[in-house]
Amino acid sequence: MSKNSAKKIINDPLKCADELFEGLVLAYDGKARRVGKRSIVMNDLRPDAPALLIGGGAGHEPIYHGLVGKGMGDGAAVGDIFAAPPPDIVLEATQAVNRGKGVLYLYGNYAGDIMNFDIGAELAEEEGITVKTVIINDDVCSAPPSEKAKRRGVGGLVPVVKLAGAAATQVESLDELARIAQKAVDATRTVGVSTKPGSIPATGAPTFELADDVIGLGMGIHGEKGVGLIPMCTADELAAKMIDLLFADDLPLNAGDEIVFFVNSLGSTHMMELLILLRAARPLLDARGIKVHQTIVDSIVTCQEMAGVSFSITKLDAELKALWDLPCESVGYTKL
């Protein structure tokens, strides 16, 4: 390992995904179980109900698989580090969460995930399991509003999974679950920035280069380089830039609207920095007349030791607010 490589307390770098998955199952203290190669499913599932299956690559913990739980995902299909779960894992997870009312796939907008989940859906439907898909694409920096289908799924997947998970405890049909999940996606936007790249455990090498005097704008959570660079600046200046980008998008946000505001560390950015950014951002939201129904400040959507932060906004109407207020419990996010 070179002197510039990221130090990690691991065993075999090629077994990280399997070993972290084994640890994750243990972290659920018997409330969830391992299924097949690398799927995790809750033990206590509402009978005769549509199922919510989430998933994606390892290396972003606690998402996606740490968002399985009460009022969250029913199960998750887990891929290798920064890699989509293969179709056989998607299928095993689908079979395990299905209770006769179909399964909703909910995951981020990445080509590998789309391909493998689509194949998994085809295999499931051959077995008589109805599958619908909602794709999370909240990253406003990765494509303009006219090309939303190209946007990545990043920090916004946390509020989206929470809202869809709440809906899955109540609705009776797969169509209704898909409708609410899509509504949550449509109401969510994220802006992310990075000050230091993450790394892949197998190599220890950074996923991209970033000079000390710049900030990467709109990086991907798999270590993709950002879409642009801005000069290094203070927390107050950065918060203003990020809020301006969120409000420049096509999500209508007007005085009196209520939101969930999620300030997320991408891995190694400390709570100190998140709170300083929150201190700068909240007055900007207040000045626009936006009401923050709940603030989340945490490290939930990560990219190994990447330094950086994302701001996510989810606009709440009466339906989404009622779902948000329901409790949830998981390793990655819990709401009392």
UniProtKB/TrEMBL annotation:
InterPro entries: DhaK_dom (IPR004006), Dihydroxyacetone_Kinase (IPR050861). Keywords: Kinase, Transferase. The keyword Kinase applies. Its EC number is 2.7.1.-. One of its GO terms (cellular component) is cytosol. GO terms for biological process: glycerol catabolic process. The keyword Kinase applies. It is an enzyme of class 2 (transferase). Gene3D superfamilies: Dihydroxyacetone kinase, domain 1, Dihydroxyacetone kinase, domain 2. One of its GO terms (molecular function) is glycerone kinase activity. Residues 12-333 form the DhaK domain. This is Dihydroxyacetone kinase-like protein. It comes from Prosthecobacter dejongeii.
